Amino acid sequence: MKVSIDPYAGFCFGVKKTIELAEKELQKQDTLYCIGDIVHNQEEINRLKNSGLEITDLSSLQEKKNSTILFRAHGEPPSSYFEASKNELTLIDGTCPIVLKLQKKIKDAFDEMKKVDGQVVIYGSKNHPEVIGLSGNTNNEAIILESLVEIDQINFEKPIRLFAQTTKDKEKYNLLKETITQKINEVDTTSDYKYFNTICGQVSNRVPKLKDFCTNNEIVIFVSGKKSSNGKYLYNICKSANPKSYHISDEYDINRKWFMDIKTVGISGSTSTPFWLMEKIANQIMPF
Q1: Cβ(230)–Cβ(274) under 8 Å?
Q2: Chain mean position to CA 135
Q3: Digit-coded pLDDT (tens) for 154-189
Q4: Cα–Cα distance between 235 and 36 in angstroms, integer?
Q5: Which of 84, 112, 191, 285 is the most exposed place for a label (fewest CB within 10 A)?
Q6: Residue 222: helix, strand or coil by DSSP?
Q7: Residues with catalytic annotation?
Q8: Please, are residues 19 and 11 in contact by the beta-carbon 8 Å criterion?
């Protein structure tokens, strides 16, 4: 049986940068605090915990004065920076550069919309850490849309600035953009409507390559954390390209029955899946 790993799978550069910052700091000191899970992959979190990483939250910062904290790639709202400063913490900012740019765009758009009674709209998951950080740059006044069915939260007679969480589905975002245009035309108004293509290219460009990888293998094992938004999205891509795709978090989720009479197995993962974990999964499968 041939087992191959998707060469385009694994950490995006934003996550890779944050992990490297954590590893570098943990070489200098025994403990590093991270606000929330450093990455949506429990296996990688456990590896870093063994080196001294501790996951914490904003409510605990007062107890950690003079410590060092890390902001993960997802980014944080302005209030988190204030809390870090107030509690005299040394801050290592691992926010993805793409997310930082998006935060600034949204802050600028919010300042613009406040002057004209307009709206900032973000297509994303309300409870996702990236979206919490983005919304924080609008004093949490942005309209968050998780799906097209929530579109009536928007007032189509007022100015609109539309953005997307960096890991969302590009096709669904395009549909949302077009539907807003249609709604504006229905109310017969010349609305001040602008949208921005803020989905990460590293995520969206993976789709055609992932589809090819899935169709070139009899079955596909997709490895990612259950909480990974990007993982859920890319796994659905796998499943649509190859119905014999299976979503696992670690080697304990593997079912030997999947590999009966199979000659080619492909292993892929999300932007938060470490390559070492996919290699570990491959080594587990090869003897079957």
Answers
A1: no
A2: 15
A3: 999 999 999 999 999 999 999 999 999 999 998 876
A4: 24
A5: 112
A6: strand
A7: 130
A8: yes
